[in-house]
Amino acid sequence: MKTYAKFGILTVLIVGSLVWLAMGGIRETQTYYKTIPELQKMGTKAQGQRLRVAGNVEAGSILKDGSRVTFVLEQGAQHLKVAYNGNDPLPDTFKAGAQALADGQLGPNGIFEANKIQAKCASKYEAKPPQNLTHEASTPSKITEIKVQALSSRSGS
């Protein structure tokens, strides 16, 4: 075999291996965002897939048991039980009524097993309500009056 043919085969193998590894990495890290109704329509197809689901944390549903936290996400009339067993602490903004995003997989028991939780604080990014100014314009200070008098006495002399 000629040297160029060996070099060509080796190049094709290396490039092919890199493409195969890249495609495998992309598939493993791919996450689909689904609403709770979409997730429930998927049925058993959703099990084992990496997904992100958002909703509001239902009041009174947060239960902490050691490092495991379970809660219910609600979106309209749809509810989804979520179990978080991650290493990171929950965000400070995670509380009843907060918007949360759970990243994980739907288990065979219908509980969404999350390994990452994000919570949104709506009030942090809302615009401040307009303030009505009811006080009158402030009067010139004593220093301003003195400067005006000094300037007028210079120009008058």
Describe this entry's structure for a reader.
The chain has 157 residues and is α+β, with helices and mostly antiparallel strands. It has two domains: 1-30; 32-125, OB fold (Dihydrolipoamide Acetyltransferase, E2P). Helices cover 34% and strands 29% of the residues. It contains four helices and seven strands. The chain has helices at 3-29, 36-42, 122-125, 142-156; strands spanning 32-34, 50-57, 63-65, 68-75, 78-84, 99-106, 112-120. Strands 2-4-5-7-6 form a five-stranded mixed barrel. A hairpin with a 2-residue loop joins strand 3 (63-65) and strand 4. The longest helix is centred in the first third of the chain and has 27 residues, at 3-29. The relative contact order is 0.12.
Task: List strands and helices in order, with pairings.
Elements (H helix, E strand, L loop, with lengths): L2 H27 L2 E3 L1 H7 L7 E8 L5 E3 L2 E8 L2 E7 L14 E8 L5 E9 L1 H4 L16 H15 L1
Parallel strand pairs: 1-2, 5-7
Antiparallel strand pairs: 2-4, 2-6, 3-4, 4-5, 6-7
Q: What's the number of helices? A: 4
Spell the H/E element sequence: HEHEEEEEEHH
**pLDDT < 50 stretches:** none
Largest sheet: 5 strands, mixed, barrel
Counted beta strands? 7
Could you give the order of strands across the largest sheet?
2-4-5-7-6
Give the CATH class of the largest domain.
Answer: Mainly Beta
Give the overall shape: flat
Q: Which structural category fits the helices and strands?
A: alpha+beta
In CATH terms, what is the fold-level topology of the largest domain? Answer: OB fold (Dihydrolipoamide Acetyltransferase, E2P)
Distance between the termini: 108 Å
